[in-house]
Amino acid sequence: MIVNTLNKIAVKCSECGKYTVADLNLFKLKVPTNVMCECGNSIFKVYIKDNKLIINISCIACDDNHSYIFNVKDIIKKQLLILSCPVTGMEIAFLGKGDYVDKVVDRYMVDMYELLNYLGIIDKKENRIVK
Ligand SMILES: [Zn+2]
Ligand SMILES: [Zn+2]
């Protein structure tokens, strides 16, 4: 059996609101990995302990830190998991197969720009800074 380990995680930065997509190599996470946003903010920490994947996220919605724990074998099976803030219900991270994560982040980026456009913060999609 070939195990697909091409997992990715996308987390929304609590400082600048941008998604950072990182590879999730399930065989290399015995050592805790800190992932930084390109704005310099430390957005999440991820590691594996006792076959559990543990993710600590600095939450954009409530300014708190949340820990999410998954079974590694569930991560391998599932195509996409959505992580929400337990306080506000806001979706703050996605993890799963690389292609799905990329697609979801794309969709959310578009939605975010539509919202900003609607609010008059930006006026044209061509003015996108991201991507
Ligand atoms: Zn940032
Ligand atoms: Zn939260």
Span of the ends, CA to CA: 36 Å
- Please summarize the sheet with the most strands: 4 strands, antiparallel
Report strand %.
35-45%
SSE ordering: EEEEEEHEEH
Radius of gyration: 15 Å
Number of strands: 8
Small-molecule binders here are: zinc ion
By helix and strand content, what is the structural category? alpha+beta
Side-by-side strand order of the widest sheet: 2-1-8-7
Walk me through the structure.
With 131 residues, the chain is an alpha+beta fold. It has one domain. Helix content is 21%, strand content 38%. It has two helices and eight strands. The chain has helices spanning 72-77, 98-118, and strands at 7-12, 19-24, 33-36, 42-49, 52-58, 65-71, 80-84, 91-97. The strands form two sheets. It has a four-stranded antiparallel beta sheet, covered by helices on one side. A four-stranded antiparallel beta sheet has the order 3-4-5-6. Strand 7 and strand 8 (91-97) form a beta hairpin. The mean pLDDT is 85. Bound molecules: zinc ion (2 copies). One zinc ion binds next to loops.
